[in-house]
Give the backbone structure.
Amino acid sequence: MNIETNFHTTNRKSRTLHNCRALLWPAGGVQMSFGLTGLLALNTVCVSAAPAHAPTAPRPPVTMRSPVAKAVPRALPRAVRKPAVRALPAETMRKLRAILAAPAMREARVGLCIIELGTVSGADVFPSEPLPTHPGGAGQNGGGSRQPVLFAVDADKRFMPASNLKLYTAAVALRLLEAGRTFETRVETDTPSAAAAGALDATELSGNVYLVGGGDPSLSSDDLSALARQVAARGIKRIRGDIIGDGTAFNADNSGGRYPNGWTLDDTLWYYGPEVGALAVNRNHVDVTITGAAGAGEPATLQVEPPADGFPIRFEVVTGAKPRAGETDRAAVDFDRSGTGGAIVASLSVSGRVAPGQKITQGIAVPDPARWAAAIFKRLLQENGVAVEGRALSAAPLSPAAPLSPAAPDATLSVSTQSAGLQQTALPWRSVLVRHHSAPLRLLLRRFLKNSDNLYGEMLLRAAALYALPTGGASGATAQRAHASLLAWLKRYGVATGGLSLIDGSGLSRYNLVTPRATAQLLALIEELPGGDAIWDALPIAGVDGSLRNRMKNTPAQGVVRAKTGTFSIVSTLSGYVTTRGGKRLAVSLLTNFARDGDESRRLQDALFTALAQSPF
């Protein structure tokens, strides 16, 4: 068949289009049909057939043999070949759809995103061997990415994440601080002679002693005991001033840094919702254990661990009668830290009754944790032979309106470079007596994610900004600076951040909002983050440890799912990594809001992750 085409136009695009039309609809009016390979080949012919410059006179007819596919190679050059479409096996897809269609989920909002990351030789291998470049995912190099989305349901809608937000906090802390970073707690004095000399050789301090928090969420009574022994070892026998707990380094945050926006009033009573500051001891809570007596009418007993220094507790619990058949043996016990008008006060009231021999333990957040830390440290100093004449107090936020020392009303916390990274230095009118360093961030992340510790999240988020980011002005809130840095990083690598609202570091705030797609993409970026194995190692392992130790046991998911749980009232979430039976690594984010039955939501989560784990994909 002959096809004749005359080129009369001077526009290259028009010439190419004209040429293609002539190829597709020849003068005889017969329509031609091509397969995909033929169309691609035809496109190459059309582009190559167009002349570089408009001719001054009509050219002779162009003759081409049919079929067109023989005019060019059947396959495109490898550099421009599109990657094959990735899809889960049909049986796996059927299982996923059945799980999502369960009656328990009909009234809930459910979002899911599954991204393929690469291949692995075993479930413990990190990171995965990356896939070839694939458009439309979430990878490095600023735009295109290597991760195809395999399955998505409402992946761009916004959900409350609960503790799934801890994945975002862990990522920003690791990125800004690195896995080997430690946090310093210092004991300082403003005794004039010690400050002037820059060292201490006296047996008596006339000024105050400060316990200064540097953002270590793991600080314990044992650590304070070691600091007290070091103070005594310097020959100090008496402190005539006060012991002041200083946790003010984070106080640029909203509400003075005590509680993030979106926490509820009842959160603040319990161990999971303590006040946030740069100084925390024993995670700012005590365990209160109540034990019923042998007989009804007798008073119950109270035990507090660790000892509640400076935390008054009014205890009015009695032993009630044994429960009748069919009745629960849990009697009503009321824990209350509210005062006049509902304000939180620095004491705890425990009242009610328990059954004979019954034992109830609750974790209770302590008020004013910096003062509480000072009270513990004062007791430990005295136990180590150092007499303390003053009180245990907490430092007021450092500001021109409320300076910590009259000698330097405009002083601010400064930083200097030391071997462990950026560290706070003592204020100019103080001298450092002794120091304590935390375990490295890599180990702190394990406690944070394995046990889903809220206080760790709040402190690590703020520490990341305090030590690694500029203040942006005296009023710049540390948590907000850390979130801004995280969002900028995600956006730079193609993650859609428009649906994200990040308020705190723990996920306890009801104002946090994330999307399944962004969360799965974050998991993909963690694989490429320097030191990202620290987060991988810190994630709970299904059927093995952390918050997943009792889930997915004796299923194909045991040991091959590493994921972060998230739970409160109307929220149940699970996001993390799955290694399939076929040796693929997937990033999965399953977010559920407003389900009637949280237990059923978790069972469905387990079923979905198990289906992916046993997939031959």
Notes: Confidence is low (pLDDT under 50) at residues 1-81, 135-145, 398-424.
